[in-house]
Amino acid sequence: MAPHTQQLTAAPAVQLRGLTRSFDGRTVLDDIDLDLPAGQFTALLGHSGSGKSTLLRAIAGLDHEVVGSGRLTAPERVSVVFQDSRLLPWRRVLDNVLLGTNGKDAAEKGREALAEVGLKGRERAWPNELSGGEAQRAALARSLVREPELLLADEPFGALDALTRIRMHVLLRELWERHRPSVLLVTHDVDEAIVLADRVLVLDRGRIGLDLTIEAPHPRSYRHPLLGEYRERL
Ligand code: ADP
Ligand code: MG
């Protein structure tokens, strides 16, 4: 079956109805309805303070104040990645990836996830021995090992330099193509949103002000002529 046919028939991974969130009487999210189809890569743009993180936290089920004001349906297995890796500094990289997992093949899956993000051989490293990009790779491995149906990422590359960010774009898009979770990537970087996502939402004054589908052919970074021949060496 062609991917687009699957998307049309699949039930949405996330269904949000009437989500309102206020802080101290100030409305940040104003009666938001949103569907994220299963397996879709969506980016959420908006200026600083527009409520992107608030919306992501609500979808992640991390915001108990919104419960009751709206209705949320989300998958069982949700992974969240933040701007900082949130690795525990006193645990080795593999142990960070395995945190909260169990089962006899957990360690093997952890090693596989680390290999997938390009950290083979770094299993026993300490978090403070990793570069910023490597730490985010480890954070992605930690999210992958849970086999999430929904991956939420809040400006995961915001603290990285431009070249590392491009490498991470390549990696994230490849991981998505291999595992096909629904992705909601929060970013304030317009290029990042267009390069990575198939759909771009813009949060503005508490509402989804714009909902764009990015049509193929697509200017994805890893297919970009400027990158193509250099990609292997990046
Ligand atoms: P973004 O991620 O788009 O930069 P946020 O979702 O972090 O924006 O914040 C949206 C608005 O809500 C901001 O004005 C912020 O100050 C406010 N806000 C977010 N979380 C809290 C909180 N826990 N308490 C009070 N105000 C908050
Ligand atoms: Mg934010």
Please give a structural write-up:
- 32% of the residues lie in helices and 25% in strands.
- The protein has 8 helices and 9 strands.
- α4 (106-116) packs across α5 (132-144) and α5 (132-144) packs parallel to α6 (162-179).
- Magnesium ion (MG) is lined by residues 52-53, 154.
- Residues 23, 28, 46, 48-54 line the site of adenosine-5'-diphosphate (ADP).
- Based on helices, strands and strand pairing, what is the structural class? alpha/beta
Order of helices and strands: HEEEHEEHHHEHEHEEH
Ligands and ions found? adenosine-5'-diphosphate, magnesium ion
Outline type: globular
| Percentage beta strand | 25-35%
Instruction: Give helix % range.
Output: 25-40%
What Rg, in angstroms, do the CA atoms define?
18 Å
Number of helices: 8
Low-confidence blocks of residues: 1-7, 224-231
Q: Main beta sheet, described?
A: 6 strands, mixed
- In which order are the strands of the major sheet placed? 5-6-7-3-8-9
N-C termini distance: 34 Å
Keywords:
single chain; 234 residues; alpha/beta; 6-stranded mixed sheet; 3-stranded antiparallel sheet; 9 strands; 32% helix; globular; disordered N terminus; binds adenosine-5'-diphosphate; binds magnesium ion; EC 3.6.3.-
